[in-house]
Structures are given as C-alpha cells and as structure tokens.
Amino acid sequence: MRMIKSFLAVLLCSTITVAQADTIAIIGTGNVGSALGPEFAAQGHTIVYGSRNPNDRDVAELVERTGNGASATTQADAVAAADIVVLAVPGTLVAEITAKLGDLSRKLIIDPTNPIKLDLLRMRHVAATSNVDVIQSIAPAADVVKAFNTLGWKVMIDPDIAGGPVSVPLAGDSGRAKRKVADLVRGMGLEPIDVGDSDNARWLEGMAILLINNNILTPRPNFNFYLREMD
Ligand SMILES: NC(=O)c1ccc[n+]([C@@H]2O[C@H](COP(=O)([O-])OP(=O)(O)OC[C@H]3O[C@@H](n4cnc5c(N)ncnc54)[C@H](OP(=O)(O)O)[C@@H]3O)[C@@H](O)[C@H]2O)c1
Known about the structure:
Order of helices and strands: HEHEHEHEHEEEHEHEHEH
Helix content: 25-40%
Strand content: 15-25%
Shape: globular
Number of strands: 10
Bound molecules: NADP nicotinamide-adenine-dinucleotide phosphate
C-alpha cells in the first residue's frame, strides 16, 4: 500500500496544477497533525503547522519530513495564511483554541476531534453537542466538516494495517466543502462517505468512542469502519 500511495502521490503532484493546490494550516503537531500534514503535502498542498512551540526541534523535524514548502508558525498566523484549517487539537479544548485563531470566515475547517475523556476504564463523551457545532458557533462564516475522527492516526498513514481502505465518514452542511475533503481522503488511499449534515457529527464522535472502547480499552478484536454495498 505504501508503494501504491507513493506512486499516487507522484501522479497527483504531476497532474495537480498550482491553482488547485491549497495552503492547509494544521493546528496541533501531535499524532493526528503529524499524520495528516505529510499526507496532504504528498498530494501537492502546502502545509503550515500552527504550534504553541513552532521553533521546537520536534516541529522542525516534522516540517522537514513534510516537505513541499512546509513551514511552522503560531496557531493564529498559520490560520491567516491558509484556505483550509485542520483542528488537530485536544477535543475538550476546541472552544478555547478556536476562539484564539483569528478570522475564520470563508475558511474550510476540518474537525477530526473527539470531546471525550477516560472515566472508569472507558471513554465517555463530555460535551452537550458536537465539536462541529462548537466550532460553527465561534466561526459562523466558515464551512466546517467533521472528518478523520473515527480512525486511528496509524491507519491514516497506512490503511494496510487495518486490512485495506478504511471508510472516512464526512459530516457537514456544505456539499462543496465535503467534496474537497473527500478528495483529500481519496488521496490518502481511504474511502470518503458523505453521512449528511452537521447534525450527524455528534454521532461520528460516538463512533470514535465505540472504536476506542473496543480496540484499545477491552480485549475485543480490533475493527474499523468500511463502506460496503448491501445486496
Ligand atoms: N490519536 C488518534 O489516533 C486520533 C484519531 C482520530 C481523532 N483523534 C482526535 O484528534 C485530536 C488530536 O489528537 P492527537 O492524538 O493528535 O492529540 P495530541 O497528540 O495530544 O496532539 C494535540 C496537539 O494539540 C496541541 N495542543 C495541545 N494542548 C493545547 C492547548 N492547550 N492549546 C493549543 N494547542 C494545544 C499540541 O500541538 P503543539 O504542541 O504543536 O501546540 C498537541 O500536540 C483529538 O481531539 C483526538 O480525539 C485522535
């Protein structure tokens, strides 16, 4: 799968014109930010990481590994430079982090977060609504799409460890924004599924809890989500 993805990346980079390449701000340089940044750069996009510590050695190494003109700066400056913003930050801190990002009008915001906490050996949802609703209330003129919250960061990089292309459900109110995110998902060797409007984002956060409680916190077999046509 890695070889196929490298081939696809070369093909995409050689066929994507400069006009189609976006600047993507990845806010947070943890597991998810470090997985998605290099994947999007391999599709021809320019990545600007937004970090609390943009000059740290770990962040410099991530920038180097990402390539294709990647850089790192503060979270607000990364947002200002970007068309697309990925909020790869702790799910319970989304409101306070989003409120400090500056003007998000007309940006496409990708939300992979889960507002969850470990409690008595299982993950629990700890918000009254979804983080898509939280982000949209702070940034009413942005297009928010829930994506990448239902699969682990290692599967984002290498779907083969999950036995093949895993499905990535997308929820949001803008069809145009979901189509754009679907292109990014396909470019990673994963399968996008449009699961409807932003009301469904909360249930995607529930899917993440199901996955974590089964895959990690109990001795049950691992599973991932796949789109399969039913007879
Ligand atoms: N781990 C997974 O496999 C996985 C899969 C799907 C979805 N998710 C969800 O994706 C989100 C990110 O997960 P993760 O595993 O990447 O988490 P993580 O490794 O803890 O990284 C989160 C990053 O957010 C930034 N951050 C942390 N505290 C902050 C604060 N107080 N203010 C501003 N920025 C802060 C940090 O980046 P800087 O140090 O650069 O500022 C940190 O590295 C979570 O909501 C999680 O539920 C995780």
